[in-house]
Amino acid sequence: MAVAAAVSSSSFDFMLVGFVDELDKIETDYLKTASIKPTVWWRYIDDIFFIWPSTPDELFSLMDGLNQHTPGIKLTLEHSLNSINFLDVTIYRDSYHKIQTKLYTKPTDSFFYLHYTSCHPTHTINNLPFNQALRIKRISSTPEELKKSLTVLKLKLNRRGYPSNVIHQGILKVLNEPLSISTNLTTTNPQTNIVTNTTKYYPKVNLRSIITTNQKRLENHGDTESLHNCQIRICYKRNLNLRDLLVKSDIPNKDNTKPHGCYRCKRNCICCNFFLESTEVISRYNGKIYRINNHLDCNTKFIIYLITCKNCRIQYVGQSGNSLRVRLYGHNNDIKKFNDTPVAKHFNTTGHQFQVQIVTKTSRNTNVRLRHEESILDLLATQAPGGSNEQN
Ligand SMILES: [Zn+2]
Ligand SMILES: [Zn+2]
User: Where does the GIY-YIG domain lie (predicted)?
Assistant: First the structure.
């Protein structure tokens, strides 16, 4: 008897990296020694699909074993003889006992596709029906299911303002082409140098045509002559959306029970070794002082931090959605690998000594955090040439 089972984890407090490490261990340690092994075992981050070649009782004892093997991780099991949902796919047996697949959408899915009038590059919006239809075609193993899911897609896209002809063209393109179109990506001549220009998207500015009309001029100018024979690629980064602008700030209230300032966690972590415990940070460039108004330590997440070279007193401001402890592993890695980052470049030359402080706890929202970082960076004047932060 074969039982298809999808397993997913339900403890999200773990840092994902640590978590996946643990799952790796399950795969290498526990499963190898299990008396009955799944016939397939496929994992996507922390969701696992496997086919079980034995009885449900044996399956439950495997699950118990797995959960006891790694304390702190709780795997929850969904299993069925006939049909199971895994990520966005339902895997089921048809009436001939053949395994088929179809699109799975969560009952709570509100189908909030990007609205047709949203301020995004036209190609992004116009390609959405095609991309969604392609996803459905890849997932649906029978023409009936494909047709059913495409009908639902048409309806949902219509409700999001997509004109019928845009939807129709996208779907038609998917239906007319072989499934392998996804791999026919446009390839560029490896000899061509590609220069990427990343910018925010402004609907009224046709950047592509500005660059095309001025490319010759750029190539002939002393500052930009390196663009000769280069292909300029434009990449758009996301603008602030209403959610970013309106979301309630989650900078926490001041914690009055513990002393304000930044302190070692006292577990002798990588951070403790380089930490300067203090109640304020001082700009070595303009003498300005920022008083720390939370209690912070090596494990505080969502932070802005300040690195100071004890010898030449040059400073660098950075932000992290993680703790300083985790962030310092990143800096340490950059230094070890001689990466081209301001911090690594400075501390890879001789005669410098690393010291770090946390300036403040800040928002979980990356955009808000980046803006906060910018204001601290301005206050402490850590931009080059006075400091170590690169000029924007
Ligand atoms: Zn520490
Ligand atoms: Zn230095």
Answer: 300-388
Q: What is the DSSP string of 349-383?
A: SSS--EEEEEEEE--SSHHHHHHHHHHHHHHHT-B
Q: Strand, helix or coil at 164?
A: helix
The per-residue pLDDT for range 68-98, each reduced to its tens digit, is 877 667 788 888 888 999 999 999 999 998 9
d(CA 356, CA 298): 10
Ligand 1 center from residue 310 Cα (angstroms): 19
Ligand lying closest to the C-alpha of residue 314? 2
Distances (CA, A) of 387 to 71, 84, 283: 46, 56, 10
pLDDT in tens, 223-269: 888 888 888 888 888 777 777 777 665 555 555 678 899 999 988 88
Break the chain into its structural domains and give their ranges: 3-87, 122-180, 193-238, 261-380
Q: Please state the pTM of the whole predicted model.
A: 0.56
Residue 51 and residue 38: Cα distance in Å, rounded? Answer: 6
Q: How far is the CA of 266 from the centre of ligand 1 (A)?
A: 5
Q: How far apart, in whole angstroms, are the C-alpha atoms of residue 137 and residue 147?
A: 9
Residues 49-73 as b/e (b if ≥16 CB within 10 A, e otherwise) read bbbbebeeebbeebbeebbebbeeb
DSSP state letters, 219-233 = HHSGGGGGGTTEEEE
Q: Give the CATH class of 261-380.
A: alpha beta
Looking at the CA of 265, which ligand is closest? 1
Task: Residue 387: name the closest of 309, 274, 305, 290 by CA.
Answer: 309
- With a CB cutoff of 8 Å and minimum separation 6, the contacts of 151 are none
Instruction: Say if domain 3-87 classifies as CATH 3.30.360.10.
Output: no
Using CB atoms within 10 A of its CB, is residue 10 exposed (0-12), middle (13-18) or buried (19+)? exposed
Give the distance (Å) from ligand 1 centre to CA of residue 265: 4
Q: Which residues pair with 233 in a beta bridge?
A: 196
Ligand nearest to the CA of 346: 2
The DSSP bridge pattern shows strands 289-291 and 280-282 to be antiparallel
Q: How many CB atoms lie within 10 A of CB 149?
A: 21
